[in-house]
């Protein structure tokens, strides 16, 4: 797990990302901060759409930013939802994260408005996953 100063930095990135969220339909803002294997932090926010299913989750935006930067492995993600909720990545995002993660090592940290936290590994949230290994 990340040390406290890295966690604080990631929390700031995730909160800033959430502030940029475009969520006029659900009014549910989400911010994510993804830690690349090189130590860089990539932010993402949810971006909704009038054609509802075309909306994109915060985690997916952070993954796109990481891949665009040329990084192909991630170590963990910090997610901030609205208010007091401690939220975890949706099912689709768990699969998307799995592509660039080692599930036993990859951590998912949920933080709420009050700073309360809960942490899991991706393996705990998404066991027995389908992965690139199956196609090798
Ligand atoms: O982990 C999550 C859960 C939900 N959302 C977004 C999708 C939608 O825009 C809004 C409500 O579901 O929150 C995320 O970005 N990440
Ligand atoms: Zn999602």
TrEMBL record:
Molecular function via GO: cytidine deaminase activity; identical protein binding; zinc ion binding
Cofactor(s) annotated in UniProt: Zn(2+)
Gene3D superfamilies, alphabetized: Cytidine Deaminase, domain 2
Any one Gene Ontology cellular component term annotated for this protein: cytosol
UniProt EC number: 3.5.4.5
Reaction catalysed by this enzyme: cytidine + H2O + H(+) = uridine + NH4(+); 2'-deoxycytidine + H2O + H(+) = 2'-deoxyuridine + NH4(+)
UniProt keywords, alphabetically: Hydrolase, Metal-binding, Zinc
Active-site residues from the entry: 59 (proton donor)
Binding site for Zn(2+): 57, 90, 93
Pfam families: dCMP_cyt_deam_1 (PF00383)
Binding sites annotated in the UniProt record for substrate: 46-52
Gene Ontology BP term (one): pyrimidine-containing compound metabolic process
Start and end residues of each CMP/dCMP-type deaminase domain: 5-133
Purpose: This enzyme scavenges exogenous and endogenous cytidine and 2'-deoxycytidine for UMP synthesis.
Family that this chain belongs to: Belongs to the cytidine and deoxycytidylate deaminase family.
Record's protein name: Cytidine deaminase
Organism annotation: Inhella gelatinilytica
């Amino acid at each position: 797990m990340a040390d406290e100063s890295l966690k604080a930095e990631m929390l700031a990135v995730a909160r800033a990302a959430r502030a940029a969220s475009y969520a006029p339909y659900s009014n549910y803002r989400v911010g994510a901060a993804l830690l690349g294997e090189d130590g860089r932090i990539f932010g993402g926010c949810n971006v909704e759409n009038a054609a509802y299913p075309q909306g994109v989750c915060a985690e997916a935006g952070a993954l796109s930013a990481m891949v665009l930067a040329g990084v192909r492995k991630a170590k963990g993600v910090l997610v901030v939802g609205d208010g007091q909720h401690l939220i975890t990545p949706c099912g689709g995002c768990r699969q998307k994260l799995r592509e660039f993660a080692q599930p036993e090592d990859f951590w998912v940290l949920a933080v709420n408005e009050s700073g309360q936290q809960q942490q899991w590994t991706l393996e705990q949230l998404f066991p027995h996953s389908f992965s690139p290994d199956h196609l090798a």
